[in-house]
Design brief:
Low-confidence stretches: none
Order of helices and strands: EHEHHEEHHEHEHEHEEHEHEHEHHH
Distance between the termini: 12 Å
Helix content: 40-55%
Number of domains: 2
Structural class: alpha/beta
CATH class of the largest domain: Alpha Beta
Number of strands: 12
Largest sheet: 6 strands, parallel
Shape: globular
CATH superfamily of the largest domain: Glycogen Phosphorylase B
Length: about 350
């Protein structure tokens, strides 16, 4: 069987969606499917894409349209679309939803009519098209499944939680990790991984770092650019290689992710797989953790308030080593039991057989 996976880019160094597509490709190739990732690199020569594909707002729709048409041209047996990317395909398809544009808009655009119009009613419309023409729909969390039912009126979505390689993301020696990244041996470290986009609430992370500045706690950012913040307790690590991420998670004391909206963040389950405790917002895949690991509930916050994040981070930093290790092992166990590549691969194989 020939399968196309439609992504925004073929690169592995862009974001969570691209990582998802490459993991899925590797998983299916091991099962002897012929798999190709299709991304913007394949349609760069299209005249209309050259003219309009970089115009803000409509760029996502144009990219999504031409990726679907390109896949049809190559005559695959099955096309796996992601969000609105590939919505135009006429091939047999499976659509993956990583957290809907519609719900993201309701959370992030309440006070901005124009952004709401774009995210919910333009991008969300084409996402709905992709959902409703697919043979099967995959949601990366239970909350995403609920979003698909609420906004796109499809009630048969299958939940397949995001997964990580638990043999790769394992706890490493703390001192070795600190030494590699030039982090102070005798300081407490709070870690943020990923782009500091509006969705990730950089304003909250900034205020947290500012409060902890007096307490000599260092905030470490593995991201794509240095923020111009007037703080002495921040360290920015630009474009950390994937191979070194387990050492970074293991070097730090707590992972923070105050997202306004998520599907299921890879950085969260990577950190958990390395036994790193977290303080996160109660969105997306965090709901699964909240329900299945009661001991970690208090670190999953209902409100995006600096005071709440501060108190929980401080609690973790002040824990004794035995308690922190026990909770860290619970975090890893959740990943092993729910988010391992082996579980993920079996669910995807069964889904493709059914299609």
């Amino acid at each position: 069987m020939k399968i196309a996976i439609i992504s925004t880019s073929k690169s592995t160094k862009v974001g969570g969606l691209e990582r998802y597509c490459h993991l899925l490709r590797n998983c299916l190739v091991k099962e002897r499917f012929k798999v190709e990732i299709i991304g913007k690199e394949d349609i760069d020569s299209y005249l209309i894409y050259k003219l309009f594909g970089r115009i803000p707002v409509i760029n996502l729709v144009i990219l999504g349209y031409f990726l679907g048409k390109h896949a049809d041209k190559l005559k695959f047996d099955l096309v796996i679309t992601n969000g609105l990317y590939g919505f135009s395909t006429r091939s047999k398809s499976i659509n993956v939803q990583h957290g809907t544009f519609a719900r993201a808009s309701d959370r992030m655009d309440k006070n901005n009519f124009l952004k709401r119009l774009i995210r919910k009613h333009l991008w969300g419309y084409f996402e709905k098209v992709a959902v409703n023409k697919a043979e099967k729909v995959v949601a990366v969390s239970e909350e995403t499944k609920e979003s698909i039912e609420k906004y796109y009126k499809r009630k048969d979505a299958i939940v397949i939680l995001n997964a990580v390689d638990t043999n790769f993301f394992v706890k490493k020696d703390k001192s070795e990790g600190k030494k590699y990244f030039g982090l102070p041996e005798n300081k407490k470290l709070v870690l943020s991984v990923g782009r500091l986009s509006n969705q990730k609430s950089p304003e909250i992370v900034y205020e947290l770092a500012k409060r902890f500045e007096k307490e000599d706690v260092i905030f470490v950012f593995a991201t794509d650019k240095i923020m111009n913040w007037d703080l002495k307790n921040t360290k920015f690590l630009i474009n950390v290689s994937y191979e070194k991420l387990p050492y970074l998670y293991s070097a730090c004391d707590v992972f923070v992710l105050p997202s306004k909206h998520e599907g299921f963040a890879y950085t969260l389950i990577e950190a958990m797989s390395c036994e790193l405790l977290f303080v996160i917002s109660k969105v997306g895949g965090a709901m699964e953790i909240y329900q299945k690991v009661p001991q970690l509930k208090k670190f999953i916050l209902d409100e995006l308030k600096v005071e709440l994040f501060y108190d929980r981070i401080k609690e973790i930093l002040e824990m004794n080593e035995i308690e922190r290790n026990e909770l860290g092992k619970l975090a890893r166990r959740f990943v092993l039991e729910n988010c391992s590549l082996e579980i993920w691969a079996e669910k995807w194989k069964e889904l493709i057989r059914n299609v």
